[in-house]
């Protein structure tokens, strides 16, 4: 059951994301060192500072749930008896952070029985926050206030506004786009981090296919936002992307999309 999920909990998680974002921006404003993990992905003190803030804040919330963070995989012992846990990427888009292009975000998701039922995504450079929870809906909050989110509908014959990764191109991805362009008009745009999901959720893009590696924490928070805005994230076999099996931290290939007349058999 998710009746314990309410706006107060969502607001508390959103504030943690903002606090983590403030710590990230303190590092962003000065010179910083870049280290590399065993998988050769970059790591900065901003990742670690954001993780500490989020982890400490989540532990203080009720109920107290396990936390799986990109920056503390070893500290996660599994979901609780109800299949619940927090899934966190303290700084999604570290490569974009290093390049100083602004396309990075703080991501906090609540997983229940494999489904992202609450999600917060915060873009600290622009101070824009997207948040959503089951039973509450999805909103964008910026300097102009709070606005409900709703995906747009794509109709047959319309141009696809397709988002792709800014820093992770792949031959498989390009081949998929080439196939789509054989039948439809496609407008391409490169966007970093989980912000691609949020763009679809707010109705400014249509689709984001990912034919390359991502981890559970890269997608879960923005997936929750997109779900509550009327969109979906599906695997290439047509099933929903899920987060129940934490023994495998990598996602399969997926497509994030809004509403519309989509013949997935073509893809």
Automatic annotation (TrEMBL):
Its main subcellular localisation, reduced to a broad class, is membrane
EC assignment: 3.1.3.7
Keywords of the record, alphabetical order, are: Cell inner membrane, Cell membrane, Hydrolase, Magnesium, Membrane, Metal-binding
Q: Which domain of life is it from?
A: Bacteria
Its GO biological process annotations read: 3'-phosphoadenosine 5'-phosphosulfate metabolic process; phosphatidylinositol phosphate biosynthetic process; sulfate assimilation
List GO terms (cellular component aspect): plasma membrane
Q: Name one Pfam family in it.
A: Inositol_P
Q: Which residues does Mg(2+) 2 bind?
A: 89, 92, 218
- One function term, GO molecular function aspect: magnesium ion binding
Q: Which reaction does it catalyse?
A: adenosine 3',5'-bisphosphate + H2O = AMP + phosphate
The cofactors named for this UniProt entry are:
Mg(2+)
**InterPro entries linked:** CysQ (IPR006240), CysQ/Inositol_MonoPase (IPR050725), Inositol_monoP_metal-BS (IPR020583), Inositol_monophosphatase-like (IPR000760), Inositol_monophosphatase_CS (IPR020550)
Which residues are noted in the entry as substrate-binding? 70, 91-94, 218
**Membrane topology type:** Peripheral membrane protein
List locations, semicolon-separated: Cell inner membrane
Is Acyltransferase one of the keywords?
Answer: no
| EC top class named in words | hydrolase
In which residues is Mg(2+) 1 bound?
70, 89, 91-92, 218
Question: SUPFAM superfamilies under this entry?
Answer: Carbohydrate phosphatase
PANTHER family per record = 3'(2'),5'-BISPHOSPHATE NUCLEOTIDASE 1 (PTHR43028)
Relate the protein's function as given in its record: Converts adenosine-3',5'-bisphosphate (PAP) to AMP.
In terms of NCBIfam families, this protein maps to:
bisphos_cysQ
Q: Which family does it belong to?
A: Belongs to the inositol monophosphatase superfamily. CysQ family.
Protein name per its UniProtKB record: 3'(2'),5'-bisphosphate nucleotidase CysQ
- GN (gene name): cysQ
């Amino acid at each position: 059951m998710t009746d314990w999920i309410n706006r107060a909990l969502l607001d508390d998680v959103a504030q943690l994301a903002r606090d983590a974002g403030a710590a990230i921006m303190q590092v962003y404003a000065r010179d910083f060192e870049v280290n590399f993990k065993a998988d050769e992905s970059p790591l900065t003190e901003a990742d670690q500072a954001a993780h500490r803030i989020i982890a400490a804040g989540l532990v203080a919330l009720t109920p107290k749930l396990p936390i799986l963070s990109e920056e503390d995989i070893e500290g996660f012992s599994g979901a609780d008896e109800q299949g619940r846990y927090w899934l966190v990427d303290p700084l999604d888009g570290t490569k974009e952070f290093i390049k100083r292009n602004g396309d990075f975000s703080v991501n906090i998701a609540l997983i229940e029985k494999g489904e992202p039922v609450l999600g917060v995504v915060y873009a600290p450079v622009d101070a824009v926050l997207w948040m959503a929870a089951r039973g509450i809906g999805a909103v964008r909050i910026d300097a102009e206030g709070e606005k409900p989110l709703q995906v747009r509908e794509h109709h047959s014959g319309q141009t696809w506004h397709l988002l792709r990764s800014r820093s992770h191109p792949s031959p498989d991805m390009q081949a998929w786009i080439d196939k789509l362009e054989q039948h439809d008009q496609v407008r391409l745009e490169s966007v970093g981090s989980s912000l691609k999901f949020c763009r679809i959720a707010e109705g400014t893009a249509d689709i984001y296919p990912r034919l390359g590696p991502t981890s559970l924490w890269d997608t879960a928070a923005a997936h929750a936002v997109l779900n509550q805005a009327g969109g979906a994230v599906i695997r290439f076999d047509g099933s929903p992307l899920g987060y129940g099996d934490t023994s495998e931290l990598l996602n399969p290939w997926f497509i994030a999309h809004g509403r519309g007349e989509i013949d997935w058999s073509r893809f």
